[in-house]
Write a structure and sequence with these properties.
The chain is of the alpha/beta class. The protein has nine helices and eleven strands. GO terms for molecular function: methyltransferase activity.
């Protein structure tokens, strides 16, 4: 594990640059990494944390790709900022590499923005996160700020710029140390919570419950190498809320064969267009889950999963 910190200087600063730090999670894809780094460069965050997992030993060509990504990072930061790097020499896998990188980030920061290498943000994503990190800094009911919206223009309440949700979209997001401190990738509470039926009526229907609990148990039992279902579980057991924008601020440009989980290039969520977040943000004067929007998203998710499967089958014919 190689940990490093450095400072970069330049002749001019961006007066509208965000004050919050950014954690950039990278691995082995130079093409998408370069595009997302360009978006970060345009925002000029004052502190940039970069975490990179090591190459997998059973992938002979991966080490070179990982080195190319790290070189892109080292040569692509040209604005005044403090840079911290966490470059792994060994491969930890998705679950441990991401979760420990976020742990590392919040050892140094009270709040911040998190982007993976395939999550291309709209330029307004950074100020959107900045405003909300400040606005809800001390409100422990709010634990997560999402940047993506997959409902493709459908809005329940246009009086406000965002709504409160039980869903935790992690394609470009932000949170606080106070929230992340509850995270545990091993989910030791899961058996007790389910055995004692604390999740009764926490879902719209059995299919909704299955969409979280089935992969969550797979991560708990070591059958699925990921970190995000555990975060959704923590949000659930802490009765936390996430913020969802009424417009989509993130385009996932990483669907394809080189992705860790998102292989299907014909998936309806691939390369979704983005829109600017309104300025200033219109904040609701209440904090309550928008169940109508959550139910609409659930229905849309099920529809899109079916559509993606059908397109995948059709492509093989």
């Amino acid at each position: 594990m190689l940990v490093n910190s450095s400072a970069h200087s330049a002749d001019a600063t961006n007066g509208s640059a965000p004050r919050s730090a950014v954690l950039f999670l990278v691995f082995n894809r130079p093409d998408v990494t370069e595009r997302v780094l360009a978006a970060i460069r345009a925002a000029q965050p004052p502190r940039l944390y970069i975490a990179a997992d090591g190459a997998r030993p059973n992938r002979p060509k991966e080490a070179a790709a990982c080195e190319t990504v790290r070189h892109l990072i080292e040569t692509g930061i040209d604005w005044p900022c403090t840079v911290h790097t966490l470059f792994r020499e060994q491969n930890l896998g998705c679950r441990n590499a991401v979760s420990t990188a976020i742990d590392w980030f919040f050892q140094h920061e009270e709040a911040g923005i998190i982007l993976e290498d395939d999550c291309l943000p709209h330029s307004s994503f950074f100020t959107y996160c900045e405003d909300l990190l400040h606005h809800y800094h001390d409100d422990t009911r709010v634990m997560h700020i999402s940047g993506s919206n997959i409902m493709r223009g459908w809005v329940h309440d246009s009086d406000y710029s965002y709504y409160f949700s039980h869903h935790t979209a992690i394609w470009g997001w932000a949170t606080w140390r106070r929230a992340w401190q509850h995270y545990d990738a091993a989910t030791p509470l899961l058996p007790e919570i389910q055995r004692k039926n604390y999740l009764w009526r926490r879902f719209f229907n059995p299919l909704d419950a299955r969409m979280l609990l089935r992969p969550l148990w797979a991560t708990h039992n070591g059958q699925l190498d990921t970190w995000d279902y555990q975060w959704s579980f923590i949000m659930l057991v802490q009765s936390g809320l996430s913020i969802m924008p009424n417009v989509n601020l993130i385009s996932n440009i990483g669907f394809g064969g080189e992705a860790t989980h998102t292989f299907n290039t014909s998936h309806p969520w691939a390369n979704l267009p983005t829109e600017p977040a309104p300025r200033p943000l219109r904040h609701p004067s209440f904090v309550i889950r928008d169940t109508i929007s959550d139910y609409r998203e659930l229905r849309g998710t099920l529809r899109d999963k079916i559509m993606a499967r059908l397109r995948s089958v059709a492509a093989m014919l």
